[in-house]
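Handout, section 4.2: multi-component inputs.
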Amino acid sequence: MKKDMKKVLPMALVLFLSFSVAFAQEKGKEEKGQQKQENKIEKSQDRVQQNQDVKGDIDKEKGQQAKDNKVTEVQEKGKQKKDEKKPDDNNGIDQKNTEDLTSNDKSKGNNYGKDKGDLTGKEFGQQRASDAKAAALATKTESEQKIKEQEEQIKANEEKIKEAKEKVKNQKEKGEITAEEEMAKNENIKQAEKKVSEMKSIVEKNKKEVEKLNKTLKLE
Amino acid sequence: MKKSIFLIPILGLVIACSSGTKQSEESLEALQEQTEAIEELTQKLDESIYTSDTEMEKTQNEINTLLNNI
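Output:
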């Protein structure tokens, strides 16, 4: 009996020690990982929050700009001067927005990621990933819509240029304009064409950004 | 000799526990990296669209001015 005890006791001790080492290791790693994750989560949540704030402000501004665009199209030369003044107003809005953003950062910036409710670090990470994906998809759809609109805008401009060219040609044929006037008008048309190609490169850039996001989303 | 035989499964258990944690940690980090990449690209796209919107509006105004003079 005593002999058996001598055998069993060290075995039990070894077992107990190994289990405690394994648990301690696991716990330590988990805590470390969780801390790291929490830090990262906080940072990225701040970023997401900032994005959302900026997006909201952008949407407001976009709405105003869309209104301005419509007005610009309808109004005649005289009113265009007024429209040129509007970007100043927008700058005012920008300033307001940045002020809002900085005040937001100060007031609620770091608190965003802290309240995770009943979620564990892993669950929270997964939740954050799905949120990011959803936000990315929404931005992608919105951007694609925007790109479509911009392409239509380019088409409309190309049409306008075509009409302008024909108009100048007709005016010249009818003798309504001098050679100098014709040259000046053609110069204006050339410049307009350059502007349209600038627009095209802007749209191309946007398309590339969408493509990048698309690829990253597909990689997941 | 007999005692050392009992140590083998214990050692296996210890290794299994530590590698399992490592694996889940790695997958979590990968998920975080992907999420960060997505967030970054989303922000970039958002900014790009916003900037392009402003540029397009400005260019449109210039085009209108140029073509209205014809």
